[in-house]
Target: Enoyl-CoA delta isomerase 1, mitochondrial
Amino acid sequence: MALRVVSVLKRRLGGPGQKLLRSGNLLSATQHRWEKMPSSVGFPVTSRRSFSKTALIVDVDHNLGIATMKMNNPPVNSLSLELLTNFVIDLEKLENEKRCRGLIITSASPKIFSAGLDITEMYGKSSAHYAEFWKAVQELWLKLYMSNMVVIAAINGSSPAGGCLISLAGDYRIMADNPKYTIGLNETLLGIVAPFWFKDTLVNTIGNRASEHALQLGLLFSPTDALRVGIVDQVVPEDKVQDTALNVMSRWLSIPDHARQLTKTMMRKPTVDRLLKQREADIKNFVSFISRDSIQKSLHMYMKHLKERKE
Ligand SMILES: CCCCCCCCCC/C=C\CC(=O)SCCNC(=O)CCNC(=O)[C@H](O)C(C)(C)COP(=O)(O)OP(=O)(O)OC[C@H]1O[C@@H](n2cnc3c(N)ncnc32)[C@H](O)[C@@H]1OP(=O)(O)O
Model:
């Protein structure tokens, strides 16, 4: 199957996209190599590099120009300070790899894409810790939302709150067709409020009315409903998520990088600038909001409820 997908990738880049690239004299080293491949054989993986840190496994295929990043923070891929920090470091590394043009984000543990922000980072800690944590959340969103790479979320499990934000920060979302999985910004269910830039990212994806409805009620959508409202772009059988991501990537990578990147910047920069203008104030707001006794109590009760569900 992987070879078939690679053949599709080669065919795609040999088509109109390639012509566009040639006319703009924009062929990257990776694409040159693709062009030389005879179409009857699969693409041999001659240059593959992996780096793996705590909580993230990154696999870079230089020939395809695609990196796959698997969140690997058992049991539920909660976004701890450590995971957020490593995520940002690895994104920066990939961003600096000229040949890496696409990134697929997925989970190493099927069933849970990410349980969102690590709630234990948000209660019973110092103000300095909350500030550091929030800065890391901001940093990841800023880097991901403005990435020069094509970012595809291969959502192979549930993806509430911060997990949903990671998917929304990408360019395209493919979700596994399993009614047990849900996705959405469910902050209000925890007694907390999605910050304005979470809200903006959702509005940019599904529009104002649907966002208001989803945010006020803290809706967690099944894959079918997520597709209907537009939170995800495609729902596919569970075992087809990765191959579909590669296929979709080939379509996006057939567009000349500079044109696609400038378009992405044009669409997203106003949203990003809103946070950049008030980044420190946003951190202060978060620290003062999360430190409130009532909010600390809500988070504590929510964690207790999560644990009691199992008993
Ligand atoms: C005025 C405005 C100012 C602005 C203020 C800003 C306010 C803050 C905004 C914060 C923004 C984003 C918030 C978040 O992202 S909060 C996180 C939200 N996430 C959730 O609600 C998901 C909770 N988890 C689940 O629903 C389920 O765990 C699951 C993901 C569906 C998996 O289910 P499961 O049955 O497979 O696993 P489960 O037994 O429930 O969990 C296993 C253990 O993991 C612990 N755990 C689960 N989720 C989290 C989490 N997010 N953080 C930390 N720990 C988590 C769970 O407690 C279990 O632990 P244990 O084994 O019992 O010890």
Remarks:
- The two ends are 42 Å apart (CA to CA).
- DSSP finds 13 helices and ten strands in the chain.
- Confidence is low (pLDDT under 50) at residues 1-46.
- Residues 89 and 298 are 32 Å apart (CA to CA).
